[in-house]
Specification:
The chain folds into four domains: 14-113, Rossmann fold (3-Layer(aba) Sandwich); 151-217, Helicase, Ruva Protein, domain 3 (Orthogonal Bundle); 228-341, Tetrapyrrole methylase, N-terminal domain (Cobalt-precorrin-4 Transmethylase, domain 1, 3-Layer(aba) Sandwich), CATH 3.40.1010.10; 344-480, Methyltransferase, Cobalt-precorrin-4 Transmethylase, Domain 2. The chain contains 16 helices and 18 strands. It has helices at 22-33, 47-56, 83-96, 133-146, 151-168, 172-183, 186-192, 198-218, 244-250, 264-267, 290-302, 321-330, 343-351, 379-383, 398-407, 437-444, and strands at residues 14-18, 37-41, 59-61, 75-78, 99-102, 115-119, 122-126, 228-233, 255-258, 275-278, 306-311, 335-338, 363-368, 387-393, 415-420, 428-433, 450-454, 476-478. The strands form four sheets. The protein has a six-stranded mixed sheet, with helices on both faces. It has a five-stranded parallel sheet with strand order 3-2-1-4-5, sandwiched between helices. β2 (37-41), α2 and β3 (59-61) form a beta-alpha-beta unit. The two termini are 41 Å apart. The chain binds S-adenosyl-L-homocysteine (SAH). S-adenosyl-L-homocysteine binds next to α13, β14 and β17.
């Protein structure tokens, strides 16, 4: 490392900006947002920069650059497309001991403006010493997706509470331990998820600090951390369809409870040393009962652990998420819900079937036709035209569903498609009509998980699957097979 990254306090400091084009305008915006006072030197200004200067009351010099323009500046930015001007600024800066950044010209620069991830007051600067601004931007993009949007809120709370913590915990090692526990805590997660107001967060923080202080006085033992359960949607299978928050929380949890629909590729995104607990049904075994799952969730949370309850698709769509929430809330366990891409959305996207389409479908309906509940559905409404009905189902239910739709007035030629393992390796789409979909699905040997979409929008199936012609209704084809 032959450069030192530093954060400059530019408030009310004079910065010279040489150049009048759009690049200069962007730099002006950046410098103004950092509180700098600007002096802009350029023979001509683009309208964007002119407006910016007028609005901010910036000093404007309509001329070519001269060394005298550096007077009283601590930093100069050369943003012209003329290398000679940039070199002149560079030379004058060196002579006057002023830092110079020449945009896109490393040889004329004594300092570089980094790519910035701004979660103020947390600011991350990425530099490549001018070697590749594009690479710096890509690193920045990766950091953007890794870091919670509200990281700054967490830092602000820590800033507000720092004095309080210092007074409460005299020992530095204890303070550090307390802060580490706080940043790992359910409270910190709630702040990052925007699930708690500032006042309530401050109050809860104070309570945790009081508990930590009491514990340190009594026995120097760690205070009992408060556990929490995060109900996280795992999406339809492709791990890249996890939300950013799901990924962040899966990296923080102590234990994860998952069921059959959660594929290995998603589990691989879970923190390595988190305990993994399978609570689904294995062939030949009994399903873990819902009551037992609720009990497990409560038990782990009571031990102060951060529990990820990972469910296929979205946790609140046919996922019994409501039952888990009710049980946890009544046991006093904090719950945070993170949505996931539900199977219907995954299947629609992966087969390029629009769920609504002008003239074909004005509404979408998600139904489960599993078990006894099927009898109580309003089949006449489900058989009506101009809609898309998505059946989450066991594949064995398919003949009964189709039979009922036909009995209740759906035409045999209504289009339908079954999507198997949507977004997963080996995804298949079987397209047809109500009158032949059962035979086609049987012939193709479709297995779980699969869902049925009924509606004329399913004639879109395959249009975007890389085939040159629209496949005939009834075709079976494979689309998008990640990692296969
Ligand atoms: N909570 C889940 C649904 C659970 S019900 C969600 O939001 O997606 C289980 C049913 O979802 C399965 O029987 C199947 O019909 C459907 N399903 C789940 N994942 C699927 C996938 N990758 N492809 C097709 N159907 C899927």
């Amino acid at each position: 490392m032959d450069q030192l990254p530093v954060f400059l306090d530019l408030r009310d400091r004079l910065v010279l900006l040489v150049g009048g084009g759009e690049v200069a305008a962007r730099k002006a915006q950046l410098l103004l947002s950092a509180g700098a006072r600007l002096r802009v030197v350029a023979p001509q200004l683009c309208s964007e920069l002119r407006q910016l200067c007028e609005r901010s009351g910036t000093e404007l010099i309509n001329a070519r650059f001269e060394p005298a323009h550096l007077a009283a500046a601590m930093l100069a930015v050369a943003a012209t497309d003329d290398p000679q001007v940039n070199q002149a600024v560079s030379a004058a800066g060196r002579a006057a001991n002023v830092w110079v950044n020449a945009v896109d010209d490393a040889s004329a620069s004594s300092c570089y403006l980094p790519a910035i991830v701004d979660r103020s007051p947390v600011i991350i600067a990425v530099g490549t010493k001018g070697a590749s601004p594009t690479l710096a931007r890509r690193v920045r993009a990766q950091l953007e997706s890794l870091l919670p949007h509200r990281l700054g809120k967490l830092a602000l709370l820590a800033g507000r509470m720092r004095g309080l913590v210092r007074r409460a915990l005299a020992d530095q090692a204890q303070r550090r331990k307390f802060w580490d526990q706080f940043f790992d805590s359910a409270l910190a997660t709630s702040i990052l998820a925007g699930a708690i107001e500032q006042e309530a967060a401050d109050a809860e923080f104070s309570a945790e600090l009081a508990a930590a202080t009491a514990a340190s006085v009594a026995s120097a033992a760690a205070p009992a951390a408060r556990g929490a359960v995060w109900l996280i949607g795992a999406g339809p299978g492709d791990p890249d369809l996890l939300t950013l928050r799901a990924q962040q929380l899966l990296q923080q949890c102590d234990v994860v409870l998952y069921d059959r629909l959660v594929p290995q590729a998603v589990l691989e995104r879970v923190r390595r040393d988190a305990e993994r607990v399978f609570v689904g049904k294995r062939p030949g075994e009994h399903r873990t009962t819902q009551a037992r799952i609720n009990e497990l969730l409560q038990g782990y949370a009571a031990r102060g652990l951060r529990v990820a309850r990972l469910k296929g698709g979205d946790p609140l769509v046919f996922g019994r998420g409501g039952e888990e929430i009710a049980a946890l809330v009544s046991a006093g366990v904090p719950v945070l819900v993170v949505p996931g891409v539900t199977a219907a959305f995954g299947a629609a996207a992966a087969s390029a079937i629009p769920l609504t389409h002008r003239g074909l479908a004005q509404s979408v309906c998600f139904v489960t036709a599993m078990g006894e509940a099927a009898a109580s559905l309003d089949w006449r409404a489900l058989a009506a035209p101009l809609q898309t009905v998505v059946f989450y189902m066991g594949v064995s239910q398919l003949p009964r569903i189709v039979e009922r739709l036909l009995q209740h007035g759906a035409p045999p030629a209504r289009a339908a498609a079954v999507i198997e393992r949507a977004t997963q390796p080996g995804q298949r789409v079987v397209a047809g009509e109500l009158q032949d979909i059962v035979a086609r699905v049987t012939a193709a040997g479709v297995a779980a998980p699969a869902l049925l979409m009924v509606g004329d929008v399913t004639r879109f199936a395959g249009l975007a699957a890389g085939t040159t012609a629209k496949p005939a209704a009834g075709s079976v084809y494979t689309t998008h097979t990640p990692e296969s």
